[in-house]
Amino acid sequence: MSSNNLLCWICGERPADSAEHKVKASDTRSICSHCNKAGTQGYDEAWRRLSSYLHANWRDITARGSFDLSKVFGAETAKQAVRVQLYFVKAFGCKLLEDDIRVDLRSFSAALMAGIAHPEVTLLVTSSLVPAGQMLSYESDVSVLRNGDEVYSAVWMNLVHPVGIKICYLKAGAPVREPPGFPWHPTRQRKLVKLSPYKGDTEPLVARRDLRI
């Protein structure tokens, strides 16, 4: 079926006529304009504010090894922390669909539509080890761990030098662990985010040997 005939994976109602992450000529249109703009603009704005803060204060943040979301969002930290996660839930959902990685996106859609944190998505924030000037931005392939046709985990990294974000989906109950570091989820750690080690790979760790990548 042509992508022009597909429905938006978020709302399931309007034609998919928009793309969320980096726009390239080859991008598949996977969500509708409404969901990409009015429906989720609060999530985009939350990440824009945090991203600006991180880049402006990155030297001090790396020296401490952590940052406090309340320095950015004040009294609205709990609400805005969820929105930051949902920004990446939206981007990751688009990436998974466009790469034909068979993760059930209904839980992604439900979280975005309700404005609640996705329970199976965590973020790891890391500092790039690539020297300044050699790489301004980078988007990794999605690393997928499967058991047969079932996707147990998927990890995707976005880097806008020097700030790297690993977005991790781990299916509830699956025998895998998150990548090394300090996974952050807005309903657990809330305001304090610790930096994780930078690694070129994005593979989650296997906890059982009968799984295959």
What report would you give on this structure?
This protein is α+β, with helices and mostly antiparallel strands. Helices cover 30% and strands 22% of the residues. It has one domain. The longest helix has 24 residues. The chain is globular. The protein starts with 32 loop residues before the first helix and ends in a 7-residue tail after the last strand.
What does the largest sheet look like? 7 strands, mixed
Output the radius of gyration: 17 Å
Distance between the termini: 28 Å
Q: Approximately what portion of the residues adopt beta-strand conformation?
A: 15-25%
Low-confidence stretches: 23-27, 203-213
In N-to-C order, the SSE pattern is: HHEHHHEEEEEEEE
Percent of residues in helices: 25-40%
Number of helical elements: 5
Task: Write down the overall geometry.
Answer: globular
Taken together, the total number of domains comes to: 1
What is the arithmetic mean of pLDDT? 85
What is the secondary structure topology, with strand pairs?
Layout: H1 33-36, H2 41-64, E1 66-68, H3 70-73, H4 77-98, H5 106-114, E2 121-127, E3 137-139, E4 143-147, E5 150-160, E6 163-170, E7 176-177, E8 192-196, E9 205-206
Parallel strand pairs: 2-8
Antiparallel strand pairs: 1-8, 2-6, 3-5, 4-5, 5-6, 7-9
Helix pairs in contact: 2-4, 4-5
